[in-house]
Amino acid sequence: MNDIKQDNLVFKIFPSFTHPYISLMRLDRPIGFLLLFYPISFSLVSQSNYDYELLKYFILFFIGSVVMRSAGCIINDILDIKIDKKVKRTQSRPLASSALSILKAYLTLVVLLFIGLIILINLNIPAIILSLIIIPLLILYPLAKRFFALPQLILAMTYNWGSMIGWVTISSPYNFNIIFILYLSLIIWTIVYDTVYAAQDEEEDRKMNLYSTTIFFGSKKLIILNSLIATQYFLLIVFGYKLDYGIIFYVIVFLISLLNLRDINLLWKNEARKSGLYFKRNNYYGFLILLSIMIGSHFNV
């Protein structure tokens, strides 16, 4: 099992000398930065006007999601280089395979962080503060699997912090308790899809005494994931209720929850070889959640 597919379109478009950098930044796998962007987009459309300013923030945050996800991957690969060499799925990564030097990885990271800084200074002060607050968790996550039984929780708190940043970007139009409900829902979402994703490495993680929610949940994994999915969508419904969203919002969210439950039980079925596909399908769930919030906040029907 190899997580780099050389037949990917992006490798055919760009010259060969760029391929290690593309792999390092995971630009061949857009699902990662999409899952980082969705939480921000949810809060941006939750209660704001559709105007030029909103479009500007969508563009800024989309670029920012690509940049910061890429930066996070580089930090992860630098810290995990010894581990990646021992895991079949990650042995071909640029640093683990020595296709790229550590120095070049650091230089790429500096360029990405500079781009991130340019984006940051275009935001308001509260958004800048919240963006800086989350940086320690960005660094902590790659280390968490060495000492913390639930590393996916650290990832989830980091990956969905954008919902808070989006909320303050649109001048916090509703109570903090409401956006916190959305944040909790999204934390659960990430724990679910990354628990499934981590199932690919479960055996090797055990051998190296690493932690993951996949290992922590053990034989009860499927039952726990079903419960988490139900809780995730319940909290999303509460979020919509607090903002007086209309009936169509609830119908869409209910249907998404059924699709997700069907997916986890009938398609994935706790099979490691199918974990990557389930992970990628969360792009569709993210898009549908975005659609439901847009309908709930702007059509109120």
Question: How would you sum up this structure in a few lines?
Answer:
The chain has 16 helices and no strands. It has helices at 9-13, 19-25, 31-46, 52-79, 81-84, 102-120, 125-133, 135-144, 151-159, 162-169, 176-198, 202-207, 213-217, 221-242, 247-268, 275-298.
Task: Provide an overview of this structure.
- The chain has a single domain (9-298), classed as Orthogonal Bundle (Tetracycline Repressor, domain 2).
- 72% of the residues lie in helices and 0% in strands.
- The protein is built from 16 helices and no strands.
- Helix 3 (31-46) packs antiparallel against helix 4 (52-79), helix 3 runs parallel beside helix 10 and helix 3 packs parallel to helix 16.
- It is globular, with a radius of gyration of 19 Å.
- It starts with 8 loop residues before the first helix and ends with a helix.
Q: Give the CATH H-level superfamily.
A: UbiA prenyltransferase
Total DSSP helices: 16
The helix content is: over 70%
Give the distance, in angstroms, between the N- and C-terminal Cα atoms: 47 Å
Q: What portion of residues belong to β-strands?
A: under 5%
Key traits:
Tetracycline Repressor, domain 2; mainly alpha; 301 residues; globular
Write the layout of secondary structure elements.
Blueprint: H1 9-13, H2 19-25, H3 31-46, H4 52-79, H5 81-84, H6 102-120, H7 125-133, H8 135-144, H9 151-159, H10 162-169, H11 176-198, H12 202-207, H13 213-217, H14 221-242, H15 247-268, H16 275-298
